[in-house]
Each structure stands twice: as structure tokens, then as C-alpha cells.
Amino acid sequence: MGLAFMKWHGAGNDFVIIDSRGRDAVVTAPLAKALGDRHRGVGFDQLAEIRSSDTADVDLDFWNNDGSRAEACGNATRCVARYMMDQTGKTALTIRTVRGVLEARLAGGEVSVNMGQPQLARDELALAGEVDPAHLPLAGDPMAVGMGNLHAVFFVDDAEAVDVAGIGPRIETDPLFPARTNVEFAEIRARDEIRMRVWERGTGITLACGSGACATAVAAAQRGLTDRKVRMEVDGGWLVLDWRDDGVWMTGPTAHVFDAVLPQAFLDSL
Ligand SMILES: N[C@@H](CCC[C@H](N)C(=O)O)C(=O)O
């Protein structure tokens, strides 16, 4: 018995991936929370469950390690794409998430995924009150960007000096964001380079956040600080973001860490 899973990461953003194709979904909020505990479980930033699809190569669902659901997870999408590409030999495939059908491609050993067009309009974003998403009414003048999930992007002079662990949770749970938010701190290094650090909703500090990287690139371009294609240094490495006519493409590394089976006793204890 037990439950087979894989551990992957994309630029240090780490995931447990469960392949539930051909059976009913098995992940529940209590399982995600227990498995996400780095001491009593396996530990991950997000859990991704692959399911059979009738409209794409696979369907994909995401959970944070506090057991909450996430509408998007760019780096896990890239890891699942790589897993599928390794299995099938394909170099292009489609993955359906809450956002819709996303396209992924293998290029030079890295995986690119089209994360879709950003949500920038007030009525597309889960914000409280009649606020301007381009200039949220918070100290630091952050911008709200949706990539399926919500991000509040702050521009700072020195990303290393930001107290991400102190400020991040306060912004995540600010009443302005009824469904909480991810929080990015971005330092513009050049028109084609950004340094970004992140506090993820439902998870905390992570070494990278793909949808956060996309949101940051979009916010920087919208404010006229960068071009639409940038390199981005995150705590776990580098990503490339390219906001094209068909959506925001994110490219970066993926790594398969190990395969294992979760003992039945762990599942029975939930
Ligand atoms: N690491 C992810 C984002 C995961 C979801 C996020 N914490 C949320 O709750 O929206 C990524 O690579 O996009």
C-alpha cells in the first residue's frame, strides 16, 4: 500500500508531486498540511497532483504547505512538464490548471511555460475596496498583479536588506487581500535584470516563485522600469521572463531529487 510520490525542485522552489493519472484524486487539505511539514512530514513549498485530462496532456492541482489551495504554481508546472517530457520523449505539451490550458516547451535543457496573460484590472483581482491595483494603498506603493493567483510587488532599492520574514506575513494577511496574497520584493538592476525575493502565501519564504517572478516582471514593465524580457535572480538561481503577445513565458531549470513511497501508517494517521 502507501502512496508513491516524487520530490522535484525548480530553482530551489521545492515540490512533492503525486501522479494520480488513471485514478481518483487522493490529495486532501489534511494530507497536504501533514506532508508539507518539514519535520513531521516530507516538506515542500507546494504539492502538485497530476490527474488524467480530456483537454490537455495532464490536469494539475496545487496545494501550499499550510494545506491551502493555490490557483497557479509556475515552477511546479515546469517540473511536471519535465517529468512528462522525460516519460514521453515529447518536447512540447499542454497542462491544464485552474487558469486554463498552459503550454510547456523544452529548450536547451530548461523548461519554458506560458503562464498566460497577467490580470491587471480591478475586477480581475481579489482586492478589498475600490483601489487602484497599479498603486495599492500601502506603504511602499506596491502593485497588484494576478497570474491566476494574486501577487503584491514592491520595488525596493536593496532586496537583500528587506526583512522578508517580518514584512511578508503582514502584507500576506492585510485586509486589502481577502484571500491573502503572495508578496515580492524587487530590485531593478538593469532594464533586463531584476533581483527578487519572495514571501509566498500559505508557505512563507521560498527560494523562488514562478508566478511571482512573472508578476514581478509584468509590474516592472508596466511601471516602465524594465523591458518585457528580463533575467531574474531569485534566492535559488535564475529565471527568464518574457512577456509576449500570447502570455508571460517563464524559463528555468528543473531537478528530479528522489522517488519514494509514503507509508500507509502515515496516511492512516491523518
Ligand atoms: N511557488 C509557486 C507559487 C505557489 C502558490 C502560491 N504560494 C499561492 O498561494 O498563490 C510558483 O512557482 O508559482
TrEMBL record:
The keyword Isomerase applies. It catalyses: (2S,6S)-2,6-diaminopimelate = meso-2,6-diaminopimelate. Keywords: Amino-acid biosynthesis, Cytoplasm, Isomerase, Lysine biosynthesis. The record marks 151, 200 as: Could be important to modulate the pK values of the two catalytic cysteine residues. The active site is at 73 (proton donor), 73, 209 (proton acceptor). It is found in: Cytoplasm. Pathway: Amino-acid biosynthesis; L-lysine biosynthesis via DAP pathway; DL-2,6-diaminopimelate from LL-2,6-diaminopimelate: step 1/1. InterPro entries: DAP_epimerase_AS, DAP_epimerase_DapF. Its EC number is 5.1.1.7. Gene3D superfamilies: Diaminopimelate Epimerase, Chain A, domain 1. Substrate binds at residues 13, 46, 64, 74-75, 149, 182, 200-201, 210-211. Its main location: cytoplasm. PROSITE patterns: DAP_EPIMERASE. Homodimer. Belongs to the diaminopimelate epimerase family. Catalyzes the stereoinversion of LL-2,6-diaminopimelate (L,L-DAP) to meso-diaminopimelate (meso-DAP), a precursor of L-lysine and an essential component of the bacterial peptidoglycan. This is Diaminopimelate epimerase. It comes from Sinisalibacter aestuarii.
